[in-house]
Design goal:
Blueprint: E1 20-23, E2 28-31, E3 34-35, H1 36-42, H2 45-54, H3 60-73, H4 78-85, H5 93-107, H6 116-141, H7 155-164, H8 170-183, H9 190-200, H10 205-216, H11 224-235, H12 238-250, H13 269-284, H14 287-307, H15 314-323, H16 331-352
Antiparallel strand pairs: 1-2, 2-3
Bound molecules: coenzyme A.
């Protein structure tokens, strides 16, 4: 270990950004200056997406135009759907999504010059098509035919429609829409930084997003929302929750959905998402839903009192998605449907004033030496 090295880039500021601001000292987060919890509760996700790309909230006619554009870009090619039919049914949906987004890049070979309007067009295209990729993959792996998008429906409603063939009650859609806004952007997290690194070599927006999906897939990053739900299933009962947590801490297990590299005393997105999770528990109104809620509450209290480590957004988002009826391996792909906005805003920002990202390394290997002849090895 060297004092000159910032392991994991912890605490290192690598560039300017005007997209979002994370303020660990107040546990808060703003997108283009607006508090994320205000956007989540007072706006629809479409307005947040517009804001992230266009720097200002839309008025009604700007929003109508934006939504019409998104709807016009929905729909997957027959080629992509036939490729998706061949995907192994037991592949993780993040791996199939990564491949499908890369395929979108194969179908769109015209983008070479990295002009901002071209990048914006591609960002909109992925924002419009990724939900259908996620829903189509879900249906195909369950032996069902894909459902085409419905242009009379908004972003979140249309996703439910493409997954289940129906749109749930408005309150459930709102809980989902809140999660979309909360997941949209978070400064230089691992996947966003990955997208900026790839963009900085002028490799193209599809490569940058494909790489970002790969980064988000990991359980230390986006994959944590799935891991939280598996953890709740393992804990099993509310009565078992405290003992499970104490044992996990005693055996030095990493508890999924807790901790954050930047926030050390709470994550501003958690109270809003926890309210949405509680709303889902009340809507579903079953013993199973109440059991997960009670378990979550006890795990949270135990972790905070024993270790002073707070839950992150994945902790309430995972079980909320479960109660909405989504299969656990879909949770991180759902995160992608939202984070595509933040990633592409950062890719555009990076390319607007590009400098190749190329840090240094502290070499710890052998001193320089001569290649010995084969007979001497
Ligand atoms: N469970 C148990 N202990 C945890 C923990 C967790 N989720 N998160 C942090 N800690 C502990 C570490 O073990 C370490 O303890 P030590 O000093 O006794 O070794 C200390 O807190 C510092 O953690 P560290 O791993 O160095 O922090 P980090 O900034 O590198 O890690 C995360 C941040 C997010 C990777 C980490 O908190 C984690 O793995 N969380 C679980 C996965 C998750 O929810 N990811 C989603 C993030 S939004």
């Amino acid at each position: 270990m060297s004092d000159d090295v910032k392991y994991g880039l912890a605490g290192v500021m690598t560039d300017d950004t005007a997209v979002s601001k994370v303020m660990p000292e107040t546990n808060s987060l703003t997108y283009r200056g607006y508090a994320v919890q205000d956007l989540a509760t007072q706006c629809r996700f479409e307005e947040t997406a517009y804001l992230i790309w266009n720097k200002e909230l839309p008025n009604q006619s700007q929003l109508d135009e934006f939504n019409a554009k998104e709807k016009s870009l929905r729909g997957l090619s027959d080629d992509l759907i036939s490729v998706m039919r061949k995907f192994p049914k037991d592949a993780h949906p993040m791996a199939t999504l990564r491949t499908a987004v890369s395929f979108l890049g194969l179908e769109d070979r015209d983008i070479e010059d990295h002009a901002t309007e071209d990048l914006y067009e591609r960002a909109m295209l992925m924002y419009a098509k990724i939900p259908q990729i996620v829903a189509t993959d879900f249906r195909l792996r369950n032996g069902k035919e894909p459902i085409a998008p419905d242009s009379s429906l908004g972003f979140s409603e249309n996703f439910f429609h493409m997954c289940f063939g129906e749109v749930p009650a408005e309150e459930t859609v709102k809980c989902f829409d809140i999660s979309m806004t909360l997941y949209a952007e978070h400064s230089f997290n691992a996947s966003t930084f990955t997208s900026r690194v790839i963009a900085s070599s002028l490799s193209g927006i599809y490569s940058a997003v494909t790489g970002a999906i790969g980064s988000l897939k990991g359980p230390l990053h986006g994959g944590a929302n799935e891991a939280v739900m598996y953890m709740l299933q393992e804990v099993g009962t509310a009565e078992n929750a405290r003992a499970w947590m104490l044992d996990a801490l005693a055996t030095k297990k990493k508890i999924m959905g807790f901790g954050h590299r930047v926030y050390r005393s709470g994550d501003s997105r958690v109270p809003t998402m926890t309210d949405a999770y509680k709303k889902m528990v009340d809507i579903i109104d079953t013993d199973e839903a109440r059991k997960y809620w009670e378990m979550s509450r006890i795990l949270d209290e135990t972790m905070v009192s024993e270790k002073g480590i707070y839950p992150n957004l994945d902790f309430p988002a995972g079980p909320a998605y479960y109660l909405m009826g989504f299969e656990i391996p879909m949770f991180t792909p759902i995160f992608v449907m939202s984070r595509i906005t933040g990633w592409t805003a950062h890719i555009m920002e990076q390319l607007g004033d590009n400098k190749l990202i190329r840090p240094l390394s502290n070499y710890t290997g052998e001193d320089q030496r001569d290649v010995p002849p084969m007979s001497a090895r």
